[in-house]
Amino acid sequence: MSKQSYIETGFIEISKTRYPDRYETLISDMNTRLAQLRKETENESKAMKFHLESQILPGIAAYETLSAVMGKEQALAEIHRIVEIHSLKMKKAVSKAAGFAGMYKRIPKIFLKVTQKTFGRDAGFDYKIYDTDKNTARLDMIKCPYHIMTVRYGCPELCVCFCDSDDTAYGDIHPKLRWHRTKTLGRGNDCCDFSLSYIKTE
Known about the structure:
- The chain is an alpha+beta fold.
- 57% of the residues lie in helices and 11% in strands.
- It contains 7 helices and 4 strands.
- Helix 3 (46-70) crosses helix 6.
- The longest helix is centred in the middle third of the chain and has 27 residues, at 72-98.
- The radius of gyration is 18 Å and the shape is globular.
- It starts with 5 loop residues before the first helix and ends with a strand.
């Protein structure tokens, strides 16, 4: 049995709060859909399953289930809020780490290493890393399972929730760190252009 994701937890809270008379049915519907999605993706790599289990599949199942009772627009807003709250927690942790003496200078390199490890090709991603100075991490993500899977299951708009979560988590984490991105696959662009830089000042 997989550990409950934060999206499942958020879905349960919404169901109990907004639909107290039928939340058990909604939770059952979501779990049934999630089980089906897991079955359909059971042959994916272990690395990709980390993303499938932690966000992608629960996101699709929760979105579809909520859409049936409140419409797609409101359901998307609810999932976006769940993902945003989670991203704000991540931002708080990264900001705290960056605040230690001199640590902010290392954040771009750490970001690049974590991206290559957790969002690697064995997990269904593909990217181009640019050769930059030691203060900047820059890469273009040209293939992303979040985009691929949401398109496959007919909900490409859901991918934007995860795109926005990056901006929430990494934007303004430290006065001397600059997060910059102008496009994402989830918004219909040719890539996600990630850039995180340490800004040297005199």
